[in-house]
């Protein structure tokens, strides 16, 4: 489902927890008008799978975009999605988030016939809620070589995708040095998220080598004008 194209990709991230169907549909239609390539649905603290299913079905009824699960735990798996970022939180101190949750969720992914996208998930800095819940030992934001080593290890273990995460609502984005070094060493499809709040930041991240960016907080806060300017900048 995910592949390199001439233009950079952008994914909308929707946290289904405590989100109404009406709001989910509004966001989905807005991002489709802004040429999103896919909608990621997930969150670090999702516990209600029935609620998750309702949100995904509402999105699928409203837009033509693929819906990709971005689960923080096994409760983030839904049969109504098209695919799943099958992530391993590589710098977690808790083995559960590296391999055990993946083992527990694997049969559901097969049963629901979801396309599994093998992804090395790496937290840079404190990672916000994601870093806290996932017990991540955040990588230093000023040490690109460390991030690159994690990415290369993921590559050697067969993961074809890397997701560098600054965290939901992050005050700062992933540095260009980390992106450049990671891209140069690992050669994976590189997704970057967290702290992307304006067009200049998005352009910097794309020019550094990201294949795709993820935008979530702007959508939650309905900052749609900023979203539009970001998309115009990266598509230039």
Rounded Rg: 16 Å
Please write the string of helix (H) and strand (E) elements.
EHEHEEHEHHEHEHEHH
State which percent range the strand residues make up. 15-25%
- The spatial strand order of the largest sheet comes to 1-2-3-4-5-6-7-8
Please report the first level of CATH classification, the CATH class: Alpha Beta
Cα-to-Cα separation, first versus last residue: 24 Å
Structural class: alpha/beta
Q: Strand count, sense and closure of the main sheet? A: 8 strands, parallel, barrel
Poorly predicted ranges: none
What would you note in describing this structure?
- With 236 residues, the chain is of the alpha/beta class.
- The protein has one domain (9-229): FMN-linked oxidoreductases (TIM Barrel, Alpha-Beta Barrel), CATH 3.20.20.390.
- It has 9 helices and 8 strands.
- The protein has helices at residues 21-33, 49-62, 95-111, 128-133, 144-156, 176-186, 199-208, 217-220, 224-235; strands at residues 9-14, 38-43, 67-71, 83-89, 115-127, 161-167, 189-193, 212-215.
- The chain has an 8-stranded parallel barrel, surrounded by 6 helices.
- The longest helix is centred in the middle third of the chain and has 17 residues, at 95-111.
- The chain is globular and about 45 Å long.
- The model has no long low-confidence stretch (mean pLDDT 92).
